């Protein structure tokens, strides 16, 4: 049985194991006992680090989202970069996150369907609104200045996440549907298509 001798290392291990279990089984189906068993510790040790499963979920969700959302905000705010370059950098940030956490898109859909209020509460607790607000305001400012076409932000949301997440959601289907097809090679071809669709949606035509 592990102890808290290297407390920071153990905390990181707990979060990583909880992340894998939440992604594999979903929040509702994962118990604190599951997390303790996966980590090789007892429940009192686990509760020393995280008193409730909600606190654990916040730590897990934060470890994922805060690894790339600030980066996405910084890219969007780099208004001196051409639109296609910014779009490509944002796609790459999401791609790497989904490669590192391939079940994350399905996990997010499952949690949105299961309890959107819980997910929104976690977003509030993690103070993610500050990033989402800056991203939204930056897009609105560019639309108001005529640098981007004025479209509802929900259209941007649907277009981007639909095009980026769907390949990962259907990843296991690809080899059966189209044999001898590499996911990585396919996404490399898909990437400029995503940028084209965002450009068609947002970029004023000459």
TrEMBL record:
Entry keyword Cell division: no
Keywords linked to the UniProt accession: DNA-binding, Membrane, Transmembrane, Transmembrane helix
TM regions (residue ranges): 150-169
PROSITE patterns named among the record's database cross-references: HTH_TETR_1 (PS01081), HTH_TETR_2 (PS50977)
Gene Ontology MF, one: DNA-binding transcription factor activity
Residue intervals of the HTH tetR-type domain: 8-68
Organism superkingdom: Bacteria
DNA-binding region: 31-50
Family annotation (PANTHER family): HTH-TYPE TRANSCRIPTIONAL REGULATOR RUTR, HTH-TYPE TRANSCRIPTIONAL REPRESSOR FATR
Name of the protein this chain belongs to: TetR/AcrR family transcriptional regulator
Organism: Candidatus Odoribacter faecigallinarum
């Amino acid at each position: 049985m592990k102890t808290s001798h290297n407390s920071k290392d153990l905390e990181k291990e707990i979060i990583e194991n909880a992340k894998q279990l939440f992604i594999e089984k979903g929040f509702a189906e994962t118990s604190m006992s599951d997390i303790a068993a996966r980590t090789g510790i007892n429940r009192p040790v686990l509760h020393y680090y995280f008193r409730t499963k909600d606190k654990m979920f916040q730590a897990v969700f934060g470890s994922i989202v805060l690894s790339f959302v600030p980066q996405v905000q910084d890219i969007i705010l780099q208004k001196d970069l051409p639109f296609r370059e910014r779009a490509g950098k944002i796609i790459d940030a999401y791609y790497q996150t989904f490669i590192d956490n391939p079940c994350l898109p399905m996990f997010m859909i499952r949690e949105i369907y299961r309890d959107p209020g819980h997910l929104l509460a976690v977003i509030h607790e993690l103070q993610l609104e500050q990033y989402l607000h800056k991203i939204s305001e930056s897009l609105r400012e560019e639309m108001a200045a005529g640098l981007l076409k004025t479209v509802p932000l929900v259209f941007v949301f649907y277009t981007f996440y639909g095009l980026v997440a769907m390949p990962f959601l259907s990843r296991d289907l690809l080899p059966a549907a189209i044999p001898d097809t590499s996911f990585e090679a396919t996404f490399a071809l898909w990437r400029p298509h995503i940028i084209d669709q965002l450009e068609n949606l947002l970029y004023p035509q000459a």
